[in-house]
Write a structure and sequence with these properties.
By secondary structure, the chain is mainly beta. The chain has a single domain, classed as Porin, CATH 2.40.160. It contains one helix and nine strands. It has an eight-stranded antiparallel beta barrel with strand order 1-2-3-4-5-7-8-9. A hairpin with a 5-residue loop joins strand 3 and strand 4. About 5% of the residues have low confidence.
Length: about 190
């Protein structure tokens, strides 16, 4: 946990010190706000529903920050070689995140995203007597770091990025490898 706090402090120190160096008009401007996030659907033996909206503010050409909500449902059916079901795991994730972005150039984004996710679920084993187990629910911290490309489209931008959870808690929803994330941001401009 101490390592998590140290990483968060370092990330936010970098973002806020960078923001102080930038010279832009002062005061809140609603035209600098953007809305976006991620939406995903997959059905079958692996069912995934992901609705994770975010709202942010673009301080200047190189710095943005915001907050978001994570909402995911994942269901995985495992089968024997003959196709009969063996088990079904269902897991839900509800959480909050904050993010900071740096745009070294207009088409490239670097992002740090600390988050806390409440994870819950159950596991069902099929057989002569079906056995169901509740998973221990817990709030799991993650710190995602990543980089991606920003492709302007209309009043917004399509974002394709690669992220990695540096905390690597075994109960976190991201696994131990980098993962791709796709989203769209809509600007109020």
């Amino acid at each position: 946990m101490k390592r998590s706090i140290l990483i968060l402090c370092c990330c936010f120190s970098f973002v806020f010190s960078y923001a102080q160096e930038a010279e832009e008009e002062k005061g809140f401007n609603k035209e600098k706000m953007f809305f976006g996030g991620n939406f995903g659907l997959s059905f079958g033996d692996l069912t995934l529903i992901n609705v994770s909206p975010q709202v942010g503010y673009r301080f200047n050409q190189t710095l943005a920050a915001g907050i978001g909500i994570n909402g995911q449902f994942v269901s995985l059916k495992r089968r024997y070689a003959d196709g009969q079901p063996y088990s079904k795991t269902s897991q839900g994730v509800i959480g909050l995140n904050v993010f900071g972005r740096v745009y070294p150039i207009q088409q490239i984004m670097l992002q740090v995203q600390p988050e806390a996710n409440y994870i819950f679920g159950k596991q069902l084993f099929y057989g002569p007597t079906n056995e169901e187990y509740q998973m221990d629910a817990a709030i799991i911290p993650s710190v995602l770091i990543g980089a991606g490309v920003v492709i302007p489209a209309g009043r917004g931008s399509f974002i394709a990025a690669m992220f990695y959870d540096v905390l690597q808690d075994s109960r976190a929803p991201y696994g131990s490898r980098p993962f791709m994330n796709f989203g769209y941001n809509i600007s109020l401009r």
